[in-house]
Amino acid sequence: MKTRDKILLASLELFNERGERNVTTNHIAAHLAISPGNLYYHFRNKSDIIYEIFLEYEKLVDFYLDIPEDRSLTLEDLTFYLESVFDGLWSYRFFHRDLEYLLDSDNRLRRDYRDFTNRCLGSIRLIFEKMAEAGIIEPQPVDLRTAMSLNVWLVITNWMAFLKTAHAAEDSNNLTLTELKQGIYQVLTLEIPYLTPAYREQVMALREQYRPSLPA
Amino acid sequence: MKTRDKILLASLELFNERGERNVTTNHIAAHLAISPGNLYYHFRNKSDIIYEIFLEYEKLVDFYLDIPEDRSLTLEDLTFYLESVFDGLWSYRFFHRDLEYLLDSDNRLRRDYRDFTNRCLGSIRLIFEKMAEAGIIEPQPVDLRTAMSLNVWLVITNWMAFLKTAHAAEDSNNLTLTELKQGIYQVLTLEIPYLTPAYREQVMALREQYRPSLPA
DNA sequence: GACTCACTAGAGTATATACTCTAATAATAG
DNA sequence: CTATTATTAGAGTATATACTCTAGTGAGTC
């Protein structure tokens, strides 16, 4: 593997493990047993590394949330979207942790992330529309759909922070992907009141699969 | 005012303005035109300052969210709770920004914050119960109420981060309390499907007061 | 075999950061 | 007034951090 790619991979790994704030460029170089000079040959600075990782993350999520327009949406699709988005959050989990600082230090990232958010919100809205078309949920006025999509986004992107801050005992690093995916339970909670009788039971059963094992 | 209190006040102000990560103890001392030595006479370290500020925040929110058991809940109460919580979030807005890092650096804070979260979740659940008792919303099974309370908490505590990362153009510092309180619109969105016919219109009108002026 | 060029090592640097130490001054108690 | 205690200044320190600079190395090309 190319050194450049190794740097990106190691950075992501260390960022996820210890948090971006606690990982220096020297740490990354040491972890790879390369020199700092070598690292700085491949990247102008730390922000550049983070920006590149963001581009990967963005590409992944954009790929998952590419909603096909030509066919109607099934419950399997919905499950796939939810699972995929939480997989993405997991793989790049350092990112949302220090988001505000990262955006403050890199305007290019700020702009791209804002667009990314809006694209995600658009996809969520579209999923709601197609769920209504498919008869899974009752159709709702556009205003409500927009506000609901935003709430879904808030729950999805901040579920991990909640787990890390409210749940974990002494350190926040023993979080598992399984626990993270209990966020799907929370997201589906938002949709309960809008389910059609035809699909109610199926969706409730789906939701049940993600119920947290230990109640808070 | 005592130097100790001035340090706490200046720290809070600087943290809110620039983010905890960008504010050093030397900055705080310089801002107050006192020596670093003086600052360290009053506080053992930076974590201690942050912990003290958290205790204030905690006290404030606990005070606001002290739900009276002996009388039923009105819409005015609900408005008060929502307004107060967002006021608190505003006054201590640095806190949720770097939350994970702060908790990782201070186990005492981690424990206290976890308890604080659970108390808040309890209060939200209680508010839901009392709203049902008052006939504002339909009563719901306890499981659903718990999951809903958690979603409310997620929306409340992360609304600001959303505004700062997705909304603001070039820097995230031009956020106003008014914009922050549009979070109330999002919170009330969660409750719409559960409103009783008797209160539906009133709550919808209340929600309307917080509608964002410019749609995203 | 000289030359190029992508790549790498590793020492080094300017700056920042959290925090310490000593000495001095103000406030207070007896 | 004196002794003690609380408070403050300000220089200083150890360490960390992002990043630079110079001197290569090694694989391929003509």
TrEMBL record, chains A, B:
InterPro entries: Homeodomain-like_sf (IPR009057), HTH-type_Tx_Regulator (IPR050624), HTH_TetR (IPR001647), TetR (IPR025722). Residues 24-43 bind DNA. Keywords: DNA-binding. The keyword Ion transport does not apply. Residues 1-61 form the HTH tetR-type domain. This is TetR/AcrR family transcriptional regulator. It comes from Marinobacter koreensis. The lineage of its organism: Bacteria, Pseudomonadati, Pseudomonadota, Gammaproteobacteria, Pseudomonadales.
